Amino acid sequence: MSTNNAPRAADDHPVTYLQAAVMPVAEALMRHQLLDRRDRLSKTAAHVGPQGRRRHGGTPSEPLTVRELLELLALGEHLARHFRDPLRVHHAVRAGATWPQIAAARAETSFHARQNYIQWADEQRAWALAEADPGVTTGMSAAEHIAARVIACMPACPHCGSHRIVWAGNDDTFESWHCSACHRDYITGGRA
Ligand SMILES: [Zn+2]
Fold first, then answer.
1. What is the pLDDT of residue 133?
2. How far is the CA of 27 from the centre of ligand 1 (A)?
3. Distance from the CA of 25 to the center of ligand 1, in angstroms?
4. How many angstroms separate the alpha carbon of residue 62 from the centre of ligand 1?
5. Which of 65, 64, 66, 74 is nearest to 14 (CA)?
6. pLDDT digits (tens, 9 = 90+) for 161-176
7. Which strands sit side by side in the sheet containing 175-179, from one edge to the other?
8. 178 CA distance to ligand 1 centroid (A)?
9. Residue 26's Cα: distance from chain center in Å?
């Protein structure tokens, strides 16, 4: 992600996603936990009454400012994108995970898991093509891109070989399909 030149916030705490995205994950996680804890403590204190701004140990629990709430949002987005990194899907698929297994792990349909992977691979390839600097090694090579699309493409009908097929559902172990050419239904194990 090209966020190297993201401007830092005036007080050096990020309030936009691009500012948060350049922070190391461990640092972002700590800062997020600190703000989140203070946010919860201040809400608890507010229930105690007007004098309830201080906890038992005398710890101040001031409510978060608007700026800090924005920081919490920006850090949360950074962390969410980090933990949902599509590269992990790529690694799991390459290691032998099936599309139904990927789908179950991510709480999505296997159809969307395939579509999201194809979109991600296309973006990686577009990124590689856009990089004029030959020293930059990000993105996918043409061969990697083709391989990724093959991995995620819908399986051909085992009866007639047609690719005019429609995804009809999945569980954790299989996918079901309907062939628009021979009008038969069938299931596959969803292996990439
Ligand atoms: Zn068919």
1. 59
2. 53
3. 48
4. 65
5. 74
6. 999 999 999 999 999 9
7. 165-170, 175-179, 185-188
8. 8
9. 17
